[in-house]
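Repro:
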Amino acid sequence: MSAEAAALGEVYRRAATDGELLEEGVEQLLRLLQPGPGAVFCDLGSGRGEALLHVAARGRYRGCIGVELLEERHSTAVGSLAAAVGDGLLPSPVRLVRGDLTELGAWVERERAEADGAEAPRRWSGEARDGEDGEAVPLRDVSHVFACSVCYDDVLLRSMATALGDVRLFPRFQLLVSLRALPSQPHLVQVGEVQLVTSWNGGATARVYVPTDLLERPDDALPLPALSQLLCSGGVCTLPLGLQWPRDSIVPLPRL
């Protein structure tokens, strides 16, 4: 463990444990997600950027965002991004940010305030992207999220789930793929599992989560490719009990 990681609190020291999604694992992830051109992919805990840049190189999406706390890893990712852009390898724009995952919701609020012309909102440090000729894709537009979270603390995981499941903060969020099961919380519900190749396991089990209010969201906010793979078989689809049904879909029964 680096000196920077060792100097963090206990929650962050565990989260800083090294490990990454390998190239084959990224391909497995993309086969599940099948993101369209309007997708914004986000890697929460993007490390040195290998997985994020591989996603950005594999398709033309609206954007790819990586969030990493450790300066050493973030700086390495920034260098890799510059090299990939210089070689013309990235059809999708990439944004790298050094920041604390427990502040996801607060950062979205600050970005919104900045867009509205509020005075000097505080920003996360160490931001880089693959070009300065256009506006960076805002974090609130994220649709598909991956977290190499096998060592994340429950406090960190709950904070992530709370922010991602809030439609006011992340109105386009569709699903989270997490390498550690989320602790009990009311914001995201598990819809399945997928095996991914990682640096420590050739078949690590990742859990797939969607917002509990997914059925109340617009049709274009539904992760249909992933849901069809995880929930449907032989033309029959089974929805998890944890999903909240829209109010107008409930049929009241007469009193007996």
